[in-house]
C-alpha cells in the first residue's frame, strides 16, 4: 500500500522561503506523477505544481510560477517543493499526491494517493 508523508511546513515570515518534502512508503515515486496541492482556511483545495514520472517535466500554477521549484530526488525517493517570496496568501495546508500514470503533468483532484498535509503559515 502506497503512503505519502509530507514534512517541512512551519511558520515563515513574508518574503521567506519554505521547502516541503514528500516521501513515500510502499512504492518508488519515480514511477509516479507527483503533484502538490494546498488548501487555505475556508477555501477549496487548489493545485500548485506537478512533476511527471516520465521525464520530470514540471508544471506550476500561476499563483506560484516563478517562485516555486518542484524537484525529484530519485535515490532517496523524495519529491520537494520549494516556494520563495512567500506572502500570507501562501498560508495553507500543503499536500502531495501521487498518480500511477507517470505522464500526467497537471495536478488534479483524482490523483490516486494523498498525504496528510503539512501546514505552512506565513506572517506579514
Report on the structure:
The protein is mostly beta strands. Strands 2, 4, 5, 6, 9, 10 and 11 form a seven-stranded mixed beta sheet that branches. Strands 1-3-8-7 form a four-stranded antiparallel beta sheet, with no helix packed on it. Strand 7 and strand 8 form a beta hairpin. The protein is globular. The N and C termini lie far apart (40 Å). 34% of the residues are buried.
What key attributes describe this structure?
124 residues; mainly beta; four-stranded antiparallel beta sheet; 49% strand; globular
Span of the ends, CA to CA:
40 Å
- What would you report as the Rg, rounded to the nearest angstrom? 13 Å
Count up the helices: 0
Instruction: Name the structural class.
Output: mainly beta
Low-pLDDT ranges:
none
Overall helicity:
under 10%
Can you tell me the overall shape? globular
Largest sheet: 7 strands, mixed
H/E series:
EEEEEEEEEEE
Number of strands: 11
Beta-sheet strand percentage?
A: over 45%
Average pLDDT confidence is 96
Amino acid at each position: 500500500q502506497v503512503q505519502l508523508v509530507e514534512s517541512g511546513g512551519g511558520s515563515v515570515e513574508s518574503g521567506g522561503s519554505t521547502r516541503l518534502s514528500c516521501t513515500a512508503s510502499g512504492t518508488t515515486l519515480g514511477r509516479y506523477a507527483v503533484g502538490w496541492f494546498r488548501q487555505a482556511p475556508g477555501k477549496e483545495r487548489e493545485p500548485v505544481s506537478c512533476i511527471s514520472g516520465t521525464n520530470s517535466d514540471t508544471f506550476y500554477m500561476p499563483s506560484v510560477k516563478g517562485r516555486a521549484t518542484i524537484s525529484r530526488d530519485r535515490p532517496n525517493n523524495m519529491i520537494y517543493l520549494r516556494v520563495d517570496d512567500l506572502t500570507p496568501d501562501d498560508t495553507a495546508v500543503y499536500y502531495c499526491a501521487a498518480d500511477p500514470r507517470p505522464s500526467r503533468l497537471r495536478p488534479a483532484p483524482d490523483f490516486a494517493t494523498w498525504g496528510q498535509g503539512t501546514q505552512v503559515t506565513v506572517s506579514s
